[in-house]
Amino acid sequence: MLTEYGTKHAVHVITNHFGDLVAKVCECLLRKGPLTRQNVKRYTELSDEQVKNALLVLIQQNCVQAFTTEQPDGPKANTQYVVLFDNILHRVRFAKFLTILSQEFDQQCVELVQGLLEHGRLTLKQMFDRAKSSEKEGNLVDLDSLRETLVKLVTAHYVERCPASEPLLMPISEEEGPARKKGSKSAKKIGEPETIEQQVVEAALPMEAMRFSVVTNVESDVGEKEKNSNNVTPGEKRKHDVLELDECGVADEQSVVYRANFEGFIRRLRHKGCIDHVRAHLDDGAANVLSAMLQATSSAEKKVKTKNSVPLSLSSIYEEVIKSEAGRNMTLDHVRASLVQLGELSFVDASSDSYSIDFEKIIEIAQNEEVESVVSKRYGRDAYRIFRLLSKSGRLLETDKISDTTFVEKKDAPKILYKLWKDGYLLMEKLVVTGARQSQFLLWKVNRQILWKHVLDEMFHAALNLSLRVSYELDREKELLNLPADKRTGPLQDRYNRIRKVRILLESSQMKLDDAILLFHDF
Amino acid sequence: MSKRKRPDSNAPSDSLTDHERLIYDVIRSNKQDMGIWTRDMKRELKVNLPDNIVTKSIKSLQNKSLIKEVVNIHNKGKKHLMAVEFEPSKDISGGAWYSEGSLDTEFIKVVKSQCLKQIIKLKVATLEGISDSIKRSGAFKVDLTKQQIEEIVRAVVLDNQIMEVKSNGSGEFTNIPVGKVCYKNVSKGGGGGEPKTGSSASVPCGVCPQINFCTPDGVISPKTCVYYTKWLDF
């Protein structure tokens, strides 16, 4: 279930990108869940045309997916629309996705994906037309090289074929429930029920082989060759067949639509986040080793939230380490020592001479540090120790026990605990003991599941606030920003310098905060 | 009021008044190391003595070094009286880490710092190792018990200056039995004991005490926020 500020933040992103009308339809779907077009019209009180256009925009931009459901008895139900909350969040990360690409591919690849992110989905022809329109002198675009670029990106799983436009969602029966959940790539944990959004996304996905394949004009080329080689006595039927194939080949390439595969980018960001975390905790050597292990095993990952990497032997890891410039100076002993360090922190599991990355552990530690940092800065060092004690113990502890273990004054501990509880960071239970005298004890606990949801909501709130403040600041200085540079003198120049710094700070903070949202929501 | 001397005297003093004797007996016969709260003591007296007599007698007993007053750590308003020969139990005094009813923060700081110093010196240390190392260093006049060292080490773990690991018997854990709990210095990210500032904590909203009252268009909002104004004051 979406949190309040998760919803507000998503609506704000859509408003900024597509305007109030589209945002109204989006908010309706976010708050009410999947709806038919009629119901969207009813709740938003917009006209049919407005609702239709808004939905088309949201579908084009991969923020909404249509689907139908089968009734146990009777015809298919009306088409419903479900909002894809994750894809709305991804919209603020496009710059991060393009940075990843620019590190691995050439400029043509970056520009192709830029087009997909801007337009939501494109056919190869549309990509070609777009590239042609921004063609520079001496850098002509041709269809073949663009096709090759597309193949490269699809092979690397950064681009995919668009999903089915209106998949049929089968109702999950009692018997097949657990089996379905087990096989599902999108369920967070085994046993955790899938949301409708997850079910629809999964139902819409093409088969893996088709999802990451590029339709080319090879069939039509083949058709052409055959036609020419048989021009002596072309049979009517054969010609017809060849022509048909030719038409099919051209039509397929023109009709297949592609889009950026957000999963591919998020997986890469997750890897990068783990490497950065290891570098911060240990050193560059350990980070190089982890990076090499990821390089060797990432193609085997079936889903974004993979728990462990495929096990590798020391020699395989070393072979991969020395491939990179950074790892070339590392000896086998150095790699072994780094693996021991990683093992000590449980970032890597070692068994029978093979090593496997424990993603969940790395992410868990990173999440703990993020929350502990907030507690320390917001409530102080004593609260930080108290929170860490409760977080590590994972069970209810009594007030006095907490103050003794954390060396916090007995009179201060209850105040700190109460504040943390009031702000949603702790759970509290009262225990009344009746004996000679009735005594009341207060017990405290950190419940990760509840707290993590609360922390994420606070992050969405902070993200929304940053965005609102950026708009407010820029709006305040709108006239100044529109002033030509030569007219900005004296105090105006000072104000201009200030607004520049403000913009840089706020926008870079948005990106940094988004790293935390990725950590709690996507990784 | 008589001031007869009593012939049989377990008490060190032999010049107690009847009232003083009465009060002293009640105090001494109670749970020795727990002492007794003044009000409870008055209730246990067999005769009903006026308050001023009680107060005067208590003062006199204190002056004669027969009884002492101990602060109850759970309720500083409740003074406990006990015979001087007893040490207040941990339940009343708070234990080794308390002094006159408050945490002895200076002492705790010094012990923490010594533990951290020994762990850094030893690179990997068990509790026994830390304890021996501190004893050998002669940093403290009194010997700290193993339990006290353990309490302090646990608090330093909570400060995130050291981490708890289990020995695997090899490498830096050679000579330490497999599975034994050890402590190592946190190499990075703990910079002087301060936790690294997270992404969320680096923006005003992340650490704002008013976040629950903040709304987009409310009295407290990102547009009116004083923390933002200060943050953006270039």
Automatic annotation (TrEMBL), chain A:
Ranges for domain DNA-directed RNA polymerase III subunit RPC3 winged-helix: 371-437
Broad class of the protein's primary localization: nucleus
GO BP of this protein: DNA-templated transcription
Gene3D superfamilies to which the protein is assigned, alphabetical: Winged helix-like DNA-binding domain superfamily/Winged helix DNA-binding domain
Record-annotated RNA polymerase III subunit RPC82-related helix-turn-helix domain positions: 10-68
GO cellular-component term (any): RNA polymerase III complex
Localization: Nucleus
Classification via InterPro entries: POLR3C_WHD (IPR055207), RNA_pol_III_RPC82-rel_HTH (IPR013197), RNA_pol_III_Rpc82_C (IPR008806), RPC3 (IPR039748), WH-like_DNA-bd_sf (IPR036388)
RNA polymerase III Rpc82 C -terminal domain segment(s): 148-365
Domain of life assignment: Eukaryota
Keyword Transcription set for record: yes
Keywords: DNA-directed RNA polymerase, Nucleus, Transcription
One Gene Ontology MF term: single-stranded DNA binding
Function: DNA-dependent RNA polymerase catalyzes the transcription of DNA into RNA using the four ribonucleoside triphosphates as substrates. Specific core component of RNA polymerase III which synthesizes small RNAs, such as 5S rRNA and tRNAs.
Quaternary structure note: Component of the RNA polymerase III (Pol III) complex consisting of 17 subunits.
Family membership: Belongs to the eukaryotic RPC3/POLR3C RNA polymerase subunit family.
PANTHER family noted in UniProt: DNA-DIRECTED RNA POLYMERASE III SUBUNIT RPC3, RNA POLYMERASE III DNA DIRECTED -RELATED
Protein name: DNA-directed RNA polymerase III subunit RPC3
Automatic annotation (TrEMBL), chain B:
Cell compartment(s), UniProt: Nucleus
Pfam family, one: RNA_pol_Rpc34
GO biological process: transcription by RNA polymerase III
Cellular compartments per GO CC: cytoplasm; nucleoplasm; RNA polymerase III complex
Keyword Transcription carried by entry: yes
Primary site of residence: nucleus
Keyword annotations: DNA-directed RNA polymerase, Nucleus, Transcription
Record protein name field: DNA-directed RNA polymerase III subunit RPC6
